[in-house]
Every structure is written in C-alpha cells, then in structure tokens.
Amino acid sequence: MLGSLYRLSKLVQQFVGLMGSKVIRSIFGGVRLWAFLRGCHKNGGRQAQPPAQLFHLSVLLTQFQEMEYVSPEGLRLDGRRPMEMRQIRAEIGVVAKADGSALFEMGNTKVIAAVYGPREVQNRSQQLNDSALVRCEYTMANFSTGDRMRKPKGDRRSTEISLVIRQTMEACIMTHLMPRSQIDIFVQVLQADGGTRSACINAASLALADAGIPMRDLVTSCSAGYLNSTPLLDLNYIEDSAGGADVTLGIMPKLDKVTLLQMDAKLSVETFENVMQLAIEGCKAVATYIREVLLENTKQLEYRRGI
Amino acid sequence: MVGLSIGEKHFIQGGIAQDLRSDGRKRLTTRPIYVETGVISQANGSARVRMGATDVIASVKAELGRPNALQPDKGKVVVNVDCSPTAAPMFEGRGGEELSAELSVALQCCLLGGKSGSGAGIDLSSLVVVEGKICWDLYIDGLVVSSDGNLLDALGAAIKAALSNTGIPKVNVAAGASGDEQPEVDVSDEEFLQFDTSRVPVIVTLTKVGRHYIVDATSEEESQMSSAVSISINRQGHICGLTKRGGAGLDPSIILDMISVAKTVSEQLINTLDSHIAAAEAGEEES
Amino acid sequence: MAGKGGATPSTYSPSPTTQKTKSLSFGNDEVLRPDDREWHQCRPAFFQIGVVAAAAGSAYADFGSTKVIVSVFGPRESKKAMMYSDIGRLNCNVSYTNFATPVRGQAYDLGSDHKEFSSMLHKALEGATILETFPKTTVDVFALVLESGGSDLPVVISCASLALADAGIMMYDLVTSVSVSCLGKNLVLDPTLEEESYQDGSLILTCMPSRDEVTQLTITGEWSTPKINEGMKICTDACSKFSQIMKSCLKGLDSALEEEDSNVD
C-alpha cells in the first residue's frame, strides 16, 4: 500500500511535469492541486488517505489528457467553488501624475489603469467635432507572466485587447459632452493570471471615475467558463487555457445593458445562457465592490475638504 | 515635456539658488522613500519603490541557462527597463523606447561593472551551477509606473531591494554526468539561497540647475537642468559607474567635486535604503 | 598587428591573428602592450576631411585598426511631425559595416544601427554645437564604423565633430574624445579591441579642449577617486593633443599624413 502510494504520487509528479511544472507552480502560489499532491506525498507514510482522494488520484492518472478542473467534491484547482469569484481589491489614485488612476486585483491578476484627459487632441487629423476621442493602450509588463515575456510591444493580442477596452469604455463615456478633446486610457498589466481583459475594464472604469469623466454608468466586467460540465465563474490562467468555452462579459449594472460580450469555443444555447447568467452575477458583484471603493474615496475627499 | 511659464522657471531656479526648493527641501535632501518587497508573486524577487510621485517596480527572474562559451565561470544578467504609458502619455506606443534604452544602458553600466566582470555589483560567478554547462540567467526588469523625475535613482534602489528579496532555488546536480553531456538537475522548490546584495551600489544623480546641483530632482526641476551626472557608488565608497546627461559641458574639477558630494549623499541613501528594505522584508514575512 | 608580423603570406591562409592564442598578463609593468605602445600612448591617428562628395561635410579617421567615416547632411527642414523648436536638432546615427568585426556581421547582434552609441554621440555633440544658429532645422550626422579595432565610440565622436566643422556647422569648439581602460593596476590609454575585452573598467571622456569643458563622461567598473582623477588627467591631456591634430587637419596643413605619438608622461 505504502509503496504503491509512493509510486502513484511519483507518477502524478511526472504528469505535472508534462503539463509544464513551471506553469502550474508559478502561476498561482497556493495551488490546491500542488498542495494536495504534496500532502499525499507526505501522508503516504501515515496511510491516512481518505478513499475519495485516492479515487481522485486514480482518475487523474487514467485521464492524462483530460484534466480534472472540478473535483468530485465540487472544488476547483485553487480551492474555489464553481460560482465563487477570486478575491478582488481596488485602490484609487495610484499614479500621482495622471488625471485619474486605479489599481485592480482579481486574485493574482493585477492591473493598473491611468487616465489622461480630457485634453486637447494631439493629432489634429483625428479630432472629432461632435464628440471626444477615446484612445486606449494595453501593455503587459514583461514580468507579468509565469515565464518571462519576450514579445515586443504592440503585438496582435495587445492591439485587440486595446480595441476591446476602448470600445467598451467609449460606450459608457458621455463623449458628446466633450467635443474636440481627447481621453487617453492606459492599462498596464503587472501580473497576469487569467481574466486580464475583465480586470483591465474594471480598472479603467475606476480610473475614469477618478478622473471625473462623465459616464452613463460604471462598466464592470467578469468572465465565466464551462469546464467538466460545470459553469465556472472568473477563470484563472489554467482554467482559461484548458480549451473550454470562455465568456467575457461587460455590463453597465444600473442600466442593465451589455457593452461587451466575447466567447471562444462552443456552447449549446441553453448552457450559454447559464454561463452568461453566471457572468452577469459576477459583474454585479464587482459593481457592488467598485461602488464601495468609490464611495469610500469620495468620503475621504469630502473629509479632506472639510465638508 | 513639462510645460512651465517663465515665472515658474525663475521660481524653481531662484529657489535652488537659495537652497530652498519648491517642495521645501534643501538642495541635497532626498524625498522620503517607500519600499515594498515581494509585490510580484511570480518573480523570484521584486520590489516597488516610491519617491514622491515617482513609482517604479523591479522584478528579478532567474532561469537556468548555459553560460557564454567565452566566460564559462559566469552567469548572465540582463537589465531591461520599460516605461509604462501610465507614467506619461508620451510613452505611448514606441514613445518610451528611447528613454527605456537610455535607462537600461545606464543601469547595466552601473550594476555590471567592466567587461571582465570586476567591480560588478552582482557577483556573476556566484550564479554558476556547473561550470561551462549550467548557470542562472538573471532577468532584471524595471517598470516605470509613475514618473516624477529621478527615475534612474529610483530604479537603482528598486533593483537593490528586489535583489535583496530574491531567493534563488537550490539546485541539486545529478552526479555521474560527465564529458559533453548536459547534466541533469533538480531544482528545489523549498530551499532558496539568499542573494548577497552588500556589493550592489546605489545610484545618486546630481542635477545641475544654474550654478548649483541638487539631488533627487522632480520632473519640473529636471526640465530646468543644464546637465546631470549619475554616479553609482557602493558601500565601500568606490565608484561603480558614471554617466552624464544633458548637453552643457562641465569643468573637470566640478565633476570631481560632484563625485565627492555624491559620496556623502550615497552613504545616507545606502543606510536609509537598507533599513527600509529590512523593514519591508520583515513586514512581508509577517503578513 | 603584432600577431601577424614575420613572413608575409603569399597564399590565402586563414590564420586567426588575434584572440585565443594570447592570454595577456597585464599588471606586469615590463610587458608592453600588444602593439608595442607605452601605457599612456595613443595609436597613430590620422584624420581627413571632405571624403564624401555628396555630404555637406565629412571626415575620415583611423586610429590603428579602428576606421571610421562620418558624413554630415543639412541643415535641412525638420520633419513636419516634429514640433516647432527655436533651436536646431541633431540627428545622430552610428552603424557598423558587416565586415567591421572579426566575425562577420557580429555587430549586427546589436541591431544594424547602434542605438546606444547613437545616443552617446548625440549627447557628446549637442553641448558643443551652437544649435541656436539653425532653428527649425535638423542636421544629420551619420557615422559608419568601417573597422572596429577598439575605442570605437571615442573615435566616432572626434571624427563627427571634425565632419560638423567641415560642414560649417557652428560649434563652440572641436569635440575630442578618448578612452582609458583599467587593466589591473594600470591605466591604458586608447585601448585596442583586445585590451578592451580584458578591461576591468573603462572611462570615456569627451571634452572641448579650448574651453576645458567636459561634455560627456562615462565610467564603468569599480574606480576609486584618485584613479578617476588620474584617468581624467590622462584623457584631457590626450584630448588637447588630438585637437591640435584635428585643427591642423582642418586648416589643411599636412593633412595628408599626420602621425601622432603622444606620450603624455
């Protein structure tokens, strides 16, 4: 029994090696899978393995190709429930020189957004006479990913995300109030662990609010996916790269309108509805938190002005 | 970059001449410095340093690689700086590249010493695992998040802090590999070796405005500079690198004078930085 | 080229002349440098102006095996995209030929145009050029390193200032530049490529000798203050000697062959 357990755990370690041990280990600090395997390894001596975990292990080993993203107990790789979001944290005013700025964290994903403007249009040929010009640039720090990035600036992915963020934010900014002016949104990813798109939109939303730019509503965003026949909220990097469907949704919670909807892979209409409903719930949760942060910030400003 | 009226320019220059700068500092006083370590969990070591409105992040990543054939007993260190557009709209797209390249070169010059590797702040031979076969490649990445002058000093401090925070995994080399074979290694994920940072220099930039020079200039003050000399000095008081910016020429004797001023400033800076780093490390362990 | 010496090869024989064979034992005072120079002696320097007919001004310099050609174009109208400026702009570019290095195209690892050197050249020249005399316009300085034989940047800088003078661009003074390498205890003036690869530290000083002003100073490696003093002294002395040669070259005196044996001691 002892020997076979040891062999099992060795096999698992090899399997993890196959998956790219670096990715798994470095992407999230407290990976449940890893801890679980380690625990197994250590407990092996004491023969204190609950049968459920043994079962889990054997499933893992027989299905090298299909990874288990939701354990039979209904827990995900990082220990969350399927409907659970990662911890979110936001901070306003992190870049002193910008007109508005915010830091937004979703688990290990960490982004900074800075807003400059509204100001004079830099490039006259782009000037719009009836509305403000909104520009956006998305950049990833080269230490943001598990393996160091060597990609040059402005690759296709960044350009695409820049465009997505710009369009999403444009929808909520009241551009008609600021004709012939320009608003720049710069988002910088410090750490990427899935859901950077959503995190960037949330950060940009906060930064715009901090800059005092008139908006119809806050835009909040959250992603949801579908793996192991379970809808999952707020995918992390491993779940995101598993190849299942990934729905990124952006909504204006007060107006109850969708401004962004992206999905890859395929889903049946019924499942899609479920997943989208889950993402909406996620967005609303983010919105509640963002409101709190903004309110707190306003209170502080109020206090400083002595009102 | 910084739009200032003539009145404002005179105000800054006049203040410096009278040893009272716009933010109330004296010429040789630095802004308070804030150090936070371990901000990037995926890196082997990282730190965020803030000086006033200047905010930079440095991260250190170690990867196993092969040493250069010409220097089999040395690891490799690459310093790279990026200017995020969040710091200033002018860094958008390729706009920040010029400044990034300049900062990278200056930092490389200050940290890595001469071509033979002597006088380097980072001991390259300590990075070797198996001579001629395996070594650690250290990738030091700096990111300017917010910029209000004195970027080089802030980056230098952040890199020093990040290196103090760096744990390099212990590597066990499987015995038996001989000849030209690449030996098998087992990277431990529990045991880490602390990096020796006592030799890593700090950088002090003296910015010359009018007839005087100041330390830790803000971007408004930098816009009025005639030239700036960045000097990297280690704990022993040795110069580890020097670069000059700005067009105007300087008398050789002034440069020597600047070096001696920088030395005294650097002593304070090293001490404050070390205590801040220690405090940040202690704080990180608690939480 | 000490390694080559001796019999002249009549047929093609690929013999790696430098590198590998010698492990130099510097620090021993009796050992002379590979090219039999004294520690504080420069390589023979040669300057010539007006070598590129199409350019507004041009200069060629060779210091031993380091050969550089610089051409200056302009002043021309600044690009429309650039903002109005009441002073002129310098646009500097340093590039290496494919055959500049011992291994073909080695310099291309750094990119065909050497960004680092380009910005250093710009910094060295901008302080000496009277930019106010050509507002709204740009002067292009293109430097091409034909053969890299050590101390490339200082040679490029000196040569560029000569080319600027040839183009009639107003300057406060000629800019001359020299580097010293620290090899063990010794300071070596005007190091060759071989010496540079062994150096513990280097100091590049760029100055305007008549005004006694330093426009650019770069130090790498660990230096003590007395050593910096000494290094700067050696460099400024050498710079003033070079400026004499460059001036006579501009005046057309003996511009055909100007050999230099500047023994600073």
UniProtKB/TrEMBL annotation, chain B:
Residues 30-169, 200-264 form the Exoribonuclease phosphorolytic domain. Signal peptide: none annotated. Its main location: cytoplasm. GO terms for biological process: exonucleolytic trimming to generate mature 3'-end of 5.8S rRNA from tricistronic rRNA transcript (SSU-rRNA, 5.8S rRNA, LSU-rRNA); nuclear mRNA surveillance; nuclear polyadenylation-dependent rRNA catabolic process; rRNA catabolic process; TRAMP-dependent tRNA surveillance pathway; U1 snRNA 3'-end processing; U4 snRNA 3'-end processing; U5 snRNA 3'-end processing. Keywords: Cytoplasm, Exosome. The keyword Cytoplasm applies. One of its GO terms (cellular component) is nucleolus. One of its GO terms (molecular function) is mRNA 3'-UTR AU-rich region binding. Belongs to the RNase PH family. PANTHER family: EXOSOME COMPLEX COMPONENT RRP42, EXOSOME COMPLEX EXONUCLEASE RIBOSOMAL RNA PROCESSING PROTEIN. This is Ribosomal RNA-processing protein 42. It comes from Prunus armeniaca.
